[in-house]
Design goal:
oxidoreductase activity, acting on the CH-OH group of donors, NAD or NADP as acceptor; 7 strands; GM23287; 2 domains; seven-stranded parallel β-sheet; oxidoreductase; globular; SDR_fam; alpha/beta; about 10% strand; disordered C terminus; NAD; Rossmann fold
Length: about 350
């Protein structure tokens, strides 16, 4: 007999009406210890024996995560397409007394991912903490977004998660130890105008995390954890610096980095940042679309106020046409960009649309 049944029987025997209480049964505690942790708090695990890989570690949130993990004694490996950014992150981590190695890897190419994974296993060791952090955004209305930018959003924001996970998960299973963190977005739960491709890719990333977690549990790999991080727009990452948002301020990247580390240490399944926005998710599934759509339009009137005007064509340079970009490719791209008349305020989004092609080789 469960705790619930015993409690009900005891009140019935007394001839009194059972009060409205929530009793967690023995079965629930055994099968879902998260219920216990929700009530009494999650224990924090140490990360000083882990080897962490952070994609997109050359700047922004990835760099802040590398810095924090390095100070905790974690061996840090970063992947990025920006060689200069990699060097700066490695220097920051090492100057703080941490261990960090960086590699130029285009995670949208599975061949590069698998090749780099083999190199890391030989030079550093088995990855025990994988943080899929790299992301890109276009910030244009759907019909103004070139096809190659839509493909890039999916290749970097979600397809790369498949390649990195397939590269490192087998060893995690073999060692019965591992953690995969997905840096998704609140835009992975709600739609936002000018972010159709971005939202769709982040919805996919959220689904990837949830389905992977369930599959690992079904297969009995309960010591392999997954965490999905869904922040609101973050300042100073080059992606949403100029976003026009109401009611909810854009997030300080240092606060987000601290929250990500805390979520990983506590083995949290989902971390919405800031936490009160979880109410928005329940609101979405409770109220009719007229209410939800109206709220979203007011919450984020313009996700890319300083992006390229729709009349300006973004150069259609194939980002994945070959494993190595030639000098002619780079010169042609520079020539096209130099002819573009930009708004008075330089759009930070432009950097995300046209990353350096010359650094896309392992």
């Amino acid at each position: 007999m469960s705790v619930n049944e015993l409690t009900a029987a005891a009140w019935k025997e007394k001839g009194q009406k059972q009060p409205i209480i929530i009793v967690v049964s023995d079965f629930s505690l055994h099968k879902s210890p998260d219920l216990y942790y929700i009530a009494f708090g999650y224990p924090e695990k140490e990360l000083n024996t882990d080897i962490a890989l952070i994609t997109g570690g050359g700047n922004g949130l990835g760099r802040l995560l590398a810095e924090r993990l390095g100070k905790m004694g974690t061996k840090v490996v970063i992947w990025d397409i920006n060689k200069k950014g990699i060097a700066e992150t490695v220097q920051i981590v090492e100057e703080a007394g941490g261990y960090c190695k960086g590699y130029v890897v285009d995670i949208s190419k599975k061949e590069e991912v698998y090749k780099a994974a083999d190199v890391i296993r030989d030079e550093v060791g088995d990855i025990t903490l994988l943080i899929n952090n790299a992301g890109v955004v276009s910030g244009l209305h759907l019909l103004d977004t070139p096809d190659h930018l839509i493909e890039r959003s999916f290749n970097v924001n979600v397809m790369a998660h498949f390649w990195t996970t397939k590269a490192f998960l087998p060893k995690m299973i073999e060692n019965d130890r591992g953690h995969i963190a997905t840096i998704a977005s609140l835009a992975g739960h709600v739609g936002i105008s000018k972010l159709v491709d971005y939202c769709a890719s982040k919805f996919a990333a959220v689904g990837f995390d949830e389905a992977l977690r369930l599959e690992l549990e079904v297969l009995g790999h309960t010591n392999i954890r997954t965490t999905c991080i869904c922040p609101f727009f973050i300042q100073a990452t080059g992606m949403f610096d100029d976003v026009n948002a109401r009611w909810v301020p854009t997030l300080n990247p240092n606060d987000v980095a601290d929250r990500v580390i805390a979520a990983i240490r506590k083995n949290e399944k989902l971390a919405v940042i800031p936490g009160f926005l979880k109410v928005l998710l329940s609101f979405k599934w409770t109220f009719p679309w007229g209410c939800v759509g109206g709220l979203l339009k007011r919450l984020v009137p313009d996700a890319s106020p300083h992006g390229l005007p729709s009349s300006i064509a973004v150069p259609a340079v194939p980002l994945n046409s070959s494993s190595k970009s030639t000098a002619a490719d780079i010169a042609a791209l520079d020539a096209e960009l130099s002819s573009v008349t930009l708004p008075a305020k330089p759009p930070s989004m432009l950097i995300q649309r046209t990353p350096s092609l010359g650094e896309r080789v392992l």
